[in-house]
Structure formats: C-alpha cells, structure tokens
Amino acid sequence: MITRTYRMPVALALSVFVLVGALGRAQDPPPPPDPGGQPGVDVQARGPVHEAFAQPSDLQPAPGPVVTKQPPEPIEELPPDQKPEGDNVQWIPGYWAWDDGTQNFMWISGCWRDVPPGRRWLPGHWQPVDGGWVWVAGFWAPNELTQVQYLPTPPPTLDQGPSAPPPDANSIYAPGCWVYVTNRYFWRPGHWIPYQANWVWTPPCYQWTPSGSIFIDGYWDYPLDQRGLLFAPAYIDPRVFGGGGRPYVPQQVVATDFLLGALFVRSAARHYYFGDYFEPRFGKLGFVAWPDYHPVKGAYDPTFAYYHHQHAGDARWEPALRNLYKERLNGTIPRPPHSLVNQNEALRAIGANKTAENFVHKDVNLTHAQNVTALVPLNEIAKHRVTNLAPIGGAKAVGVPARALKLEQINMEAIQREQKAATVMREAAQQRRAAEAQVFTGGKVPIQHTDAPHMINLPRPPAPVAALRPPQRTAPPVVVVPKHEERPIPKFEPPHPVAPPMHPVAPPKKK
C-alpha cells in the first residue's frame, strides 16, 4: 500500500469553513425555559433532521464546518415508552449539532426508526481537527459489512441530467456516479428506475470523513411518513442531563405533514432541516427548499421524487406545495413558529380570533392551525392523521388516503434494552472515531484520485435487542445498474483536507 505523510498549514486548514473563529468563543447560555414539562429544555420547532431519519443525497463529498467550541458529552437520553409498530423499529440515539444561529450546540433528539431492510446504523461523531472539531456523519451500512474502505476523493460528477426521456411516466432518474474498482475510478452512467409504492430508492452517495471518502451503494428505504417517529430538537442544559444526571425523554414529535411542507436541504452541513428557513437570508446561507433541490440537473431529491410520483394523479398537488413554500417566503402565508412556546402562543392566538379552520391562501388548502402545528405531543400523535399533504391542492379524491399512526406501549424492560443498544451504537461510533484518527493523524489519508485507499475494520454489530417480528414487507429487487465505463478522469482539485489537531485530544470517558 502506498502511504505518505500529509500536513497542512493551520491557515489553510481553517479555510475549509470555521463557523466561530472571527466571532469569538460562544458563551454557555443560562438554563433554558421549561415549556414541555422538563426543566432545562427548550424544545424547538425547527432545526436539523436526525440524520438516521433522513439524509440528502450528495455525490461530491466535502468537509463540513469546523467548530471552534468543544462539543459537550452526549446527554443521558431514554427512549419514550411508546414506539411505532413496524418490522424492526429501533431507537437511534441523539447527538449534538452546531447551531450557527445561537453559536452553540443543539441536541438532536433520538428517533424511533423502522430500519431499512438489510441495514444497520453506524452513528456519527465529532472528530478533533486543527482549529476545532468537525462532524463526521453516520450512515446506514449493510448488515454484512465488516470493513470500511476509505477512498480518495471521487472526481466531479459527469452527470448532466437525463440524456433520454423516461421510458414511462412511472420512472425516476437516478444520477450517475463514480465507482472505485481495484485501483481507479470508473463511471457508472445515470439510469431510470421504476417508482415503487411505499419505497424510496436511496441512490449511491459518498460520505466525507477526515480519513477519506466512504462509498455507500444504493438501497431501498421507507418513505418519510413510514420511517418511525422524528422527535423535535432542543436546546438542553448539559448540566441537568449530563454526567449521570437524570435522563432526557423526548416527547414532542415532528408532524409528518408539517415536515413535507417545511423541509430544506443544506448541502454544506450535509443535513435536512425542517421549519422556518423561509427568510431570504437562509438562501444566502445555502438552504434550498426541498422541492427545488436537484442533486444533478433534471433529477429531484429522491424523497421528493417519491412524493411527486405518489401524488401524480392530482395535478394540483405539486403547484399547491410549491405555492406554500413561495408564499411563506414572501410572507403572504405566516411562517411557522420557531419553538414549542411560539407554537402554543400561535395556536392560542388563532383560536381566540376564531381563524383556526380558515385556509391560509386561496391556492393552498391548509388551515391556519395546520400551518403552525409543527410538533405534536407523543400522547396525541396516534390521533393526528397523516395525509402526506394530499388535500393541499383542494382535490376531493386524490388516491392517497389519510391514516393514523399505530403505536404500541413498551415496558421498562424494553426501554432498558433499547437504551443498552443505543449505548452499544455510541461505543461503535467511538471505535470508528479512534480507528479513523489513526489514519488521519498517521498521514495515510488518500487525497488524490490516484492514491491507494485504506481499510478499517468495523466494530461487530450488536445482537438484536429483542425478538424481531417476521418481516411484513419485502423490499423491491435491487436496482440493476448500468455497467461501469472507463472514462478519462477530469482534472480537478480535491477539497482541502482538514489537518490533525495540534495537540492530542483525550478520548471521551466511558460511562
């Protein structure tokens, strides 16, 4: 294997994107208010979507923001005592994410997730680098994966969108991508795949790490409305819930219909965001409305492509959805609340004005109450109908029936099993972090496309926390992809890698 030592000047490493740097060190906020029954918690109605719940596709990996403030240790978190019914619903633990609006960390609450068939979750982690810390995203790995190959940065995509019309109206375009074979990159052309009801095709993508790029091949996943329960993020006082303190139990669920009407992609942060990012200033910060995000020209975001086809029988659905985004941007339709406190105030105000059931716009069939209801308490979510915004265009019969979420009560023994499994996941993330750091600090990172890749053994997957139900649904067949083509590698400058920390950082303490 070819290895070489690489060291980058501090100034160049920090040029990747330092969020705090010139702004100075953010101060810890005082303990936040208690709107949801748990002191030390300020529940938010906007923020990043847990990356195990959904991640935007991206063919060109790049380092995320470098944060100069050290992230806190993960808080004590317990799963709630209700979970969705499903073949294999697991609790995925939460993590800290940097919020450049407040210049501090926000807790991304854990989520109940119906696991994609044949996959297991490898959580992300904060990696110390020269100048601060950078987030390394988690990903859904194949169950049988025992080693991760860290590749040199792939060349820029050659995909310019579909070169031929779809074979039928029921087809979705999957962009082409580079695939590393033996000792070089080959091109896999874009192709059409058939729409499958109740399934979303997650296309191949690359995950950036400081130790190289990880290729994740395509797989079938569930639609957003069938993935489980996404809980609201929160500003949390780590002094209350950390260091062996009392556990935090998320209780506010992000309503599925709200999510579809207020979802954004922020490529620089490698995250979906939900809520009020409609102001023009967010566009300048790289937030793109979900219906307008295109991985390549002529291709929708894969989750949007699914709902686009699901509502294909209603010609008014997509224009009404786009109007909702546009009129919120213009301020014609009120923008969503920012926190649970704001949401409760807004609901009281429209109730007092008796406008709750009025529609927000002549072309958007959404009531004022629905417009501001981002979060629903867990004990009420089973009564909250999921429509996938089918009525938004005003059609009476759209072929997408409303349904209720089916939950089941779990006892303390089951909660403890899930908590133990979450601990194992976090330990696996730390093992991955340590293994990547050895490559990172040892100067073995593949950078140029001609550099040899590096292999790291994965931690063994944990045993199932409970007996799983027999699968109720079988995933569609694996998508047949075109043959690889040998194409000239275009000249390109790989993203500047971050540099190792100037001083060693002690590993986190074991609990």
Automatic annotation (TrEMBL):
Signal peptide: 1-26
Biased composition range(s): Pro residues: 495-511
Source taxon at top rank: Bacteria
Keyword Signal: yes
Region of interest (Disordered), ranges: 26-90, 486-511
InterPro entries: YXWGXW_rpt
Pfam family, one: WXXGXW
Protein name: Uncharacterized protein
Source organism of this protein record: Frigoriglobus tundricola
